[in-house]
Design a protein that fits this description.
single chain; 252 residues; Rossmann fold; two-stranded antiparallel ribbon; 6 helices; 10 strands; 23% helix; 26% strand; binds S-adenosyl-L-homocysteine
Length: 252
């Protein structure tokens, strides 16, 4: 696979640096969730915080896809963060979810969701389920979501949480470097942990014309967020800017 074109993009600084708190992984569902593929925009105590997050952190930075903004307005992010971080659930930064991992900054979730350019009923693979928040945002867009998480406790907790909230997301514990062969090919793949190169199994599992949004770079430093589009055996690349994600670790 050859990278055919590099277009420089804007610099995005996403603070994904981790603080390592123990997780409180059983959130209470404080309102009624309707069945998947999405939940209704029912009011909850955080409705206003969520609206402000969407306007000031996301729209004002240039994310404009109406369906993405709507999903970010609906998905209850506070139910995906450990209870000790509830008051920061809608703040403009990532939060620890335990096991040295984080739930990404809301803006980065919105940006990556916009850049995979999905439409209803597309099949999407996420690598790095973490809290399940990004997967819920994707499910809210009525796409079919498959998500792989390497940390067994996180995979189990996210699976439970997503089910409890009514999101039909298939979660698997495993090494996402290898993708999820049985369900390939995918219309889009979104990777929320950073490898130091583009995993070839993911490229192989992408449909022709499909998008892969992935941070790539060295561990412990800034990475570049890329939007790749598969064109036959080539990848068209767009540089979306500098980001900081936790590393993609390999299974033993
Ligand atoms: N998308 C998540 C944030 C993920 S943080 C959310 O919305 O909350 C990155 C996640 O990638 C972590 O949970 C980490 O355990 C996971 N991860 C790291 N390497 C992985 C691998 N090889 N395969 C699958 N998941 C991996």
């Amino acid at each position: 696979m050859r990278i055919s074109r590099i277009v420089p993009g804007v610099l995005v600084i996403a603070l994904a640096a981790c603080g390592y708190a123990r997780p409180a992984l059983t959130p209470t569902v404080a309102y009624l969730a309707s069945p998947s593929p999405g939940i209704s925009p029912t009011a909850d105590p955080y409705t206003q915080s969520r609206k402000e997050m969407v306007v000031s952190q996301i729209q004002q930075r240039g994310v404009s896809a109406p369906d993405v903004l709507e999903a970010m307005n609906i998905v209850p992010r506070h139910l995906f963060v450990p209870t000790e971080y509830l008051s920061q659930a809608y703040a403009d930064h990532p939060l620890p979810i335990g096991y040295g991992q984080t739930i990404s900054q809301p803006y980065i979730v919105a940006l990556m969701t916009e850049k995979i350019q999905v439409k209803r009923d597309d099949k999407v693979l996420e690598i790095g389920t973490g809290s399940g928040y990004q997967a819920a945002v994707l499910a809210q867009l009525s796409v079919e979501v498959y998500s792989v998480e390497i940390v067994p406790e996180l995979a189990r907790a996210a699976d439970e949480r997503l089910k409890q909230l009514g999101y039909a997301v298939a979660v698997k514990q495993g090494d996402g470097y290898l993708g999820w062969e049985e369900h390939a090919p995918f219309d889009a793949i979104i990777v929320t942990a950073a490898p130091d190169h583009v995993p070839q199994p993911l490229v192989k599992q992408l449909k022709d014309g499909g998008r892969l949004v992935i941070p790539v770079g060295p561990q412990g430093g800034f990475q570049t967020l890329w939007q790749f589009t598969r064109q036959g055996n080539d990848l068209k690349a767009i540089d979306l800017g500098g980001v900081l994600f936790v590393p993609l670790v390999r299974g033993k």
